[in-house]
Amino acid sequence: MKFKQLYPILSLLVALSLALAACAPQQAAPTDEAPSAETQEPSSAMTEEPAMTEEPAAMPKTDRHGGWLDEIDVSVVAGDSAISQLQAGAIDLYSYGLASDVYPAIKEAGLQYSQSYGGSYSIMFNPAVFEDASRLNPFSNRKIREAMNWLVDRDYLNQEIYAGGSLAKFFAITTQLVEYTDLIDTVRALESKYAYNPEKAKEAISAEMTAMGAELGADGKWQYNGAPVTLIFLIRPDGDGTRKPMGDYIANQLESIGFTVDRQYKTSSEAAPIWRGSKASEGLWNMYTGGWLPSGLTRDERSQIQQMYLNTSVQAVDPFISNVSDPEFQKLGDDLAQGNFSTPEERRSMMERALELSLQDSLQVFLIEQVQYSPFNDNVAVTYDLASGVEGAYVGPYNLRFKDQEGGVLKVGTTDLFTEPWNTVSGSNWVWDSNIMRSTTMGTGNITGTAGLMGDPYTGLAWPQRIESAELTYRKGLPIKQNLDWLTVEAVDQIDVPEDAWVDWDATEQRFITAAEKFPEGTTANIKSVVTYPADLFETVRWHDGSPVSVGDFVMSMIMGFDPAKPESATYDESLVPGLEAVLASFKGYRIVSTDPLTIEAYNDAYNADAELNILPLWPLSPFGLSGENSWQIFAISNLAEANQELAYTSNKADTLEVEQTSWVGGPSLEILSKYLDQAAGESYIPYEPTLGQYISKEEADLRYSNFKKWFDEHGHFWVGTGPYYLDRVFTTEKSLVLKQNADFVDLADRWAAFSEPKLASVLLDGPGQLKVGEEAVFDASVFFKDEPYSQSDIQGVKYILYDATGAVVQIGDASFMSEGQYQVTLGADVTSKLPTGSARLEVAVVPLPVAVPAFTSLDFVAVP
Amino acid sequence: MAVVTRTPSEGVVLKKSTSSSTFTRVSRYVVVRLLTLFATVVIGVYLTIMIANMGGYVDQIMRNEVADRITQSIAANPAMQQLDPNARKKLIQDRIAAEEQRLGLDVPIAIRNFRYLSNALTLRLGRAINMTSDSGSKQVRLIILERLPATLLLMGISQLFLFFSSVFLALNLSRRYGNFWDKLVVALSPTSAVPAWFYGIFLILIFAAVLKVLPFGGMVDSPPPSNSFDYALNLLKHLTLPALSLVLSSFFLSIYNYRTFFLIYSSEDYVEMAKAKGLASRDVERRYILRPTLPNIITNFAFLIITLWTGATITETVFLWPGLGRTLYHAIGLYDIPIIVGSTIIYAYLLAITVFMLDFVYALVDPRVKVGGR
Which of A660, A739, A740 to mutate to test the interface with B (most CBs of B within 10 A)? Predict the structure, then answer.
């Protein structure tokens, strides 16, 4: 009876549980479905149009200055709840990249999304011969490492672990980005050669194991010296959790061909002392699930060969040091890293060969190029960097808006904020903090070690942000090429550095050291850039506190690049010395040619293969490569606090002095900085007066301090920039902040509207399903963008690769241009006669100019006699 | 009861003697107790330090992490890529050496351990190794203080509500043993096997994602309201779900525990006697049930108060609540020993003081207990 009384309650509980369970977001079902022939390219994730599947949000002409939005509210939101919060309207955009396993959930929720690279995973091998001669390390044999490429099915990993949202990766260079796209025929052919083929792997590994003295026992297990060949596999279960299933899969594959695998699940900190910290020949490990950070939209990845395989790698830890590479590979990798080539063509052929040899070396077998997704609501327009996503796009804050309106309040969620103190010498460099900082700057970004350019989010090239004209001169023989026409480029036999160029800093006398003083015999440089700024620069560009930008800001930025690293300086910080030494190794000087209009020459020995990236404009942006801008007065008062040992820019010095690290946005720093602001204002203080006194007047100093004080009183922080948004309020404990539109910004809101969306190409291939060997066959390729033909002037090339049934490359060539968006592949009789009878595949790769991502498609057909 | 007869003069001497012996007894007890507790705190904190740095193994981990971090940052810097390999190697080594020095890895572990210990015991909490406070400070004191109000608010409201409501309801249930509500509580008590964060996820799903009436997490809206009243209301709105999840996860079990506890005392002979005498049930509860259970209730309450300090790590994480639990969790992940030790020493001192004070409180509320008595 009593139990009967409980029935209704229990029933109610069960019903409630079911209702709650029904509310749960649907789990993305892992797909077992084999991809169709037309879509089985590993490139599927990046070649489909990512976010902008709708009509581009073409905004009408506007007279609005600064950002499109009135206000951006940024707060910390857990990635787990990002999709739910977007659906509930709590946020409009989640700017941090989510791992690709959420890709199906984003699509199911009907959200838009951006794609970017989130790093890569590999299997790293211990290449050493073990000191214990009784133990065999199969991976000391390059051919076994090479064969591992055939043993792993990268597409399976992508489908099963990353829901098909990432990319199969074979090379150290970023998959489907600039280098990859430039070498498209080579890399696709190599990918086909090293595609999953377990029988081939087993055959190659068996032959090598036998040659090394191992025997396959009756139980199907490899034996050496009477004991099973046991591979110690360090598998990381931490991080995003994907390395564990990846490691388990590879361990299963190895066990299937007779190895005994000792799976040791260790976190990063547990595994590092073993794979990094131990001597490789001690034999504490054989394999490790490696992971590498994304390198951004880097156009030049030639140093990756050395870095990822060779014993000369910057990694300089034992697995690399112990690797004995093929001498040809070693030389190629080192030459590429050191720039020992003189033409782009020579570089290209070196890269082609190096990539081929890298798969033969396979100190690491790369597996997955992770793609990340930043979801956002349908009514929001987002510009993102193809490599580093929403938070890595310099142009992002300019174009962020609601599609159907000017203004409005946009709510953004991200993974963290204020992770470290904010200052532009050694403050926070976390991507989520940097993204906010960039919203407050002129949009200039640190692209090649200098500032003043706008990074192209789709190609990695650079555009002038506030430059009237730019000239590049480089020494003849350097492999530099020009891509865009906003600069003039000239090659000369020799570039002499003028005697009055500023090449270093004398912290005692507080003046620049000239080239004549440092190099009495004279010196030369590899490149020279001359940048002329707009004539109205100092009238139109203002700091957020209302003060006009001045030459003093530019010169102060230069000084701060040197002074804190000089022992004689009042703000000396020894942790900054190595960085300055590295810069001075190639830096050859700055020269202010004119202040009206501002014209600055820069000389350097370091150079980039793209002419645009060799322009070295100055801007009052962080001299240490961080993302914020810095007025001269913020450095002035921060330096006073630093000199009095009350604050320190770097955490190293702050720890040594046991003081707070300088933060311009919060914490105990603010009170100290406020005190020195009052002091500086009272004295009309001009920092580094022997030098800056020539550029800053007492009146300017008074105005600066007065405006700065008003700003601090109103906003409660010292973060001012010149960008399209200003930092209105900061809530460090609540982890949120408010950005507001800078209506005084010099440019209109549509300044970078041309970058609203990536012009990703799509390609269709049509042709016969059957051809006769020895007879000509013609295939048609259509290249388009949003149903419109892709302009021929925007296409670098359309290539084709013909594979036989085994995946071997039969022919590589260029498709012929027929009309806008139409190309033709003609396989001559001599080509088709090379095809064995049976199935074959034709692949077409399109290399567009406006974006660094290629487009692929392929068609299977049958070759009959 | 034995009756002792004595002369007045004997009585005076005896009183003095009794007073003196009480003082001696209590003094001796206080000294011994304090020394014992202090020794316990020292051992506890030292063990925490040893565990936090895994007997020195953390040094090895940190050295590798430092080397990896600096190498990757230089490898990823385009400006460094054309540097001469030897110059680059030297740059990496210099930076690694500077960072190891900053982290104190150049000082032997034993010396560092005793330094941590002595600083902790004297409450010089020092500076964190890696973590900063939300406002950017590295002082452990500020890192803890910054998070303390949020933790006290969440834990205080939820745990105090839980405590008082449990005692009140349990007392009521113990009077109505076997009725519908009593059975309901007994039936629902296994729901406390589910952790608070799990309830948190469900509550978020219902009230934030589906009904959209309460926020997903955080302490206040973004941006926070500017006037204090609105801020307080907003705070309350954000507090509702995490506090509710903490309460729900323990509610029925807590009532069940107290109800069982009260039931045991309710069935004592002297309670039956009181009832038989016809005393009002309120008087029976107060004098015959609550009074003897008071030491246990006070003990529970005192420990509850100091437990507030520890926060609720996973619940705070689920709700992005900026509390001490998350701070400590991050500190453990980053091997930030000063924060771990700082948090531990304060808890250890609070615990020691509470234990010490409770001995006296027991003597005050329960005449059967004598401080230092055997």
Answer: A660
pLDDT at residue A24 in the model: 38
**B109 CB within 8 Å of a chain A CB:** no
Question: In terms of Cα–Cα distance, which of B321, B343, B326, B4 is closest to B150?
Answer: B321
Q: Which residue of B has its CA nearest to A314?
A: B75
Is B139 part of the contact surface with chain A (CB cutoff 8 Å)?
Answer: yes
**Domains in chain B: boundaries:** 22-121, 140-333
Beta strands in A103-238, from DSSP E residues, in sequence order = 112-125, 167-168, 215-216, 222-224, 227-228, 230-235
A77 touches chain B (CB under 8 A): yes
For residue A856, the Cα-to-chain-centroid distance in whole angstroms is 23
Decide if B99 and A652 are in contact by the 8 Å CB cutoff.
Answer: yes
**Within an 8 Å CB–CB cutoff, is residue B74 touching chain A?**
yes
CA distance A35 to A80: 28
pLDDT confidence band for A422 (50 / 70 / 90): very high
Other beta carbons less than 10 A from residue A210's beta carbon: 12
Backbone angles phi, psi at A291, to 5 degrees: -140, 145
Q: Identify the bridge partners of residue B89 per DSSP, sorted by sequence position.
A: none
Does B322 sit within 8 Å of A298, measured CB to CB?
Answer: no
Cβ partners under 8 Å of residue A768, min gap 6: A777, A779, A861
* A75: nearest CB among B187, B218, B317: B218
Asked if the Cβ–Cβ distance from B216 to A666 is below 8 Å, we say: no
Quickly list DSSP for A565-613.
GSTTSTT--GGGHHHHHHHHTTEEEEEEEEETTEEEEEEES---SBGGG
pLDDT in tens, B129-150: 888 888 888 889 999 988 889 9
Closest CA to A594 of A549, A535, A526: A535
CA distance A828 to A817: 17
User: B79 at the A interface (CB within 8 A)?
Assistant: yes
Residues 6+ apart with CB under 8 A from A747: A65, A66, A724
Using CB atoms and an 8 Å cut-off, which of residues 311-350 of chain A contact chain B?
312, 314-317, 337-339
Q: Please answer yes or no on whether B137 and A660 come within 8 Å at the CB atom.
A: yes
Which band of pLDDT confidence, cut at 50, 70 and 90, is reported for residue A59? low
Arithmetic mean of pLDDT, B304-323: 86
Q: Do the Cβ atoms of A90 and B216 come within 8 Å?
A: yes
For the stretch B44-62, what's the b/e string if a residue is b when 16 or more beta carbons lie within 10 angstroms of its beta carbon? bbbebbeebbeeeebbebb
CATH number of A119-293+362-370: 3.10.105.10
B21-27 long-range Cβ contacts below 8 angstroms, 24+ apart = B25/B371, B25/B372, B25/B373, B26/B371, B26/B372
Going by pLDDT thresholds of 50, 70 and 90, the confidence category of residue B361 is confident
Reported CATH class of domain B140-333: mainly alpha
Q: Provide, as residue numbers in chain A, all residues whose Cβ is less than 8 Å from the Cβ of B85.
A: 312, 314, 337-338
Superfamily of domain A762-864: Macroglobulin (MG2) domain (2.60.40.1930)
A449/B320 CB distance under 8 A: no
Decide if A303 and B133 are in contact by the 8 Å CB cutoff: no
- Residues B231-264 have pLDDT tens digits of 999 999 999 999 999 999 999 999 999 888 888 8
Domain boundaries, chain A: 119-293+362-370, 409-755, 762-864
Q: What is the ipTM score, two decimals?
A: 0.76
